[in-house]
Sequence to fold (332 residues):
Amino acid sequence: VFKTSSHAPRFYQVDNVKWVVGSHNTYEKIASSSATLRSQIIIHLENGIPFQPQTGDGIIFNDANTLDLIMSQIPKQYLRSPKEIITGSSWWYRDFGNFLFVRNYLLDRYKIKFSDVDLNLGYAIAEGRQESNELSLDKSGDLYIRLLQSAAGDKIQILGLDISTQSKRNNFAWIHIGQYTAGTKFKIITDGQINIINAFAVVPSNEMSRISTQVLNELNQLKPSSHTSDLIPVSYIQESPTSYKVQVQEPNKWLVFSESFDAQWELIDSKTGKILTPVPAYDMLNGYYVSDIGEYLLKYKPQKYVLTGSLISLITLVLTAIIWQVSKYAKK
Fold:
């Protein structure tokens, strides 16, 4: 049994966010700065979160660069799993649910401490010098590949480009291959102890330009904040385990609901009816950016289906009892 010496309240507000790009060992690296953890929410953009910084927010490039930030904002429709693309008996694959196996395998066999996410796309893994079958993609545009750069890597060759995978980074990195025309055949050749490909992306040039411009504009407007205040308390009434009334007293701040993250916890503005959906604050709690003060309703969306199901069950029970009684007397 574990007991914490202190814990956060069920609801509280903080001033701003630390947006994180890269490896998920962020907490290990900043654990010594308790003020940062208590006054700012940590949000990893690789979790599929839109990069929408507010005044006073900051950004952490954790073994990552600007291209990794831009690619975190690419719509999922442009991403492809390596298992769909790479063929050849020399490669082996793991689905996204096997991330823990891959993490332990790299640590045990190659002494690589790896803590990155796989975007729910899985892994294509090659050990030693390997060559794939002829491959092709069905879309045209800018071609990118997300691969592991590690101390056990060497290089990957694709479409005539030699990409170094030798690095102390021990983390996935996005690499721009160049313009690609749908149907063009190519092979992937690997050198080194181990190489892992996590994703392919083919993005239309105009769409890539739009996303890059938007992300860089947001990045250039970021100004580091020195604010280190403690948590801002929030009063609330628990109507049921799936319903709360929350009184927000501070505008333009992040509201944290200290329950395990679930995208179906909806925060509803009582005055306007506007619905806010959560982002994973600290990767596991529910965070909402609230711009106005006032009363908000927090509801768990699936609960309405439970009530409907209970009503149907009650009606069914009553009808069954009536039928049973009618059948009983009819036999007599």
Notes: The first helix runs from residue 26 to 30. Residues 267 and 276 are 5 Å apart (CA to CA).
